[in-house]
Write a structure and sequence with these properties.
By secondary structure, the chain is mainly alpha-helical. The protein is 62% helix and 0% strand. It has one domain. 30% of the residues are buried. It is a multi-pass membrane protein.
Length: 125
């Protein structure tokens, strides 16, 4: 069994302050099974704590389903995993400790990835 308590520190080095699709593509090259397992273990708990915005939740669930689909290329999955890690980890541009404002950067990253993967994500809604 791996030590997942340190994954926040390990994964946060992959997540830049100001993400763009090009940066997410670079990040995706560094995604490992450890990050995938971290998302699988923590996604539903973090989603359950999220209040309001049903569309944002739908986007997150679509990204999660996309990540779990064995037919999706690892490169595309890794981009989705990067966005999900950004959502799950409390260490990012705006800490998630502040109730509404803390999720603004998460919403921006997820929206950008959803737009980038829009055609591929359609069937996961």
């Amino acid at each position: 069994m791996r030590n997942y308590e340190q994954i926040g520190e390990d994964a946060s080095i992959y997540i830049p302050q100001k993400s763009t699709i090009n940066e997410l593509e670079k990040i995706s090259e560094n995604i490992t099974d450890r990050e995938v397992e971290y998302v699988e273990q923590n996604f539903w708990q973090k989603l359950a704590r999220l209040k309001g915005n049903i569309n944002f939740k739908r986007d997150l669930i679509a990204l999660y389903k996309f990540m779990k689909d064995p037919a999706v290329s690892f490169f595309k999955k890794a981009i989705a995993i990067s966005a999900l890690l950004y959502f799950i980890l409390p260490i990012d541009s705006i800490p998630d400790l502040s109730p509404i404002v803390g999720f603004l950067d998460d919403i921006g990253i997820v929206a950008m990835v959803v737009k980038y993967l829009s055609r591929e994500l359609e069937r996961y809604y």
